[in-house]
Write a structure and sequence with these properties.
By secondary structure, this protein is α/β, with parallel strands linked by helices. The chain folds into two domains: 123 residues, 3-Layer(aba) Sandwich (Rossmann fold), CATH 3.40.50; 66 residues, no CATH class. It contains ten helices and five strands; from the N terminus they run βαβααααβαβαααβα. It has a five-stranded parallel β-sheet with strand order 2-3-1-4-5, sandwiched between helices. α7 packs across α8. The chain starts with a strand and ends with a helix.
Length: 204
Amino acid sequence: MRVALTGGIASGKSTVAALFAALGVPVIDMDALAREVVAPGSALLAQVIARFGPGVRSADGSLDRRALREIVFHDARARQELENMLHPAIVARAAQLSAAAKGPYQIIVVPLLAETGAASQYDRVLLIDCDEAQQRARLAQRDGGTIELVEAALAAQASRATRLALADEVIRNDGEPAALEPKVRELHRQYLELAAARASAPSA
């Protein structure tokens, strides 16, 4: 059973994914794969630099993700071009890891699930939800970006209502991180039951 874990920027997706991983659930993170496919020396990194300029290359030869965000969060066309460049490689790598994963169910972290219309590709959608005021505060603290960049990042994503409409389950992340663990444990129990029911159901 494939569970898409999604949420807005700085909603707490990585924290929740780590809690599932600690329970032994296979976790495939699209954000991590987005870094992997543009590793130093990769053909995709060369393409990204050729398209967006040498300013997105760090001194050590890796991709300067903050510089790239400064470009694509202010330019919808550039953001779409970047997604078109990276998305096929990310999806292919995720499919490879998914096919190799063991266990009754797996978590696939898909930040852009609503934006890419990919919800139908998964058996369940788990949304990590919080209000935009919390997103703003976390983004400013995490990335140290300007107010302008924070607002551009929020404007670039799907609306909260759109994400909620896609969700089968929702974890509200509006408190302390410690409050997330019992929520994840309860969902883990539910997902094990659902996976077992699917496995025992007669084939159509």
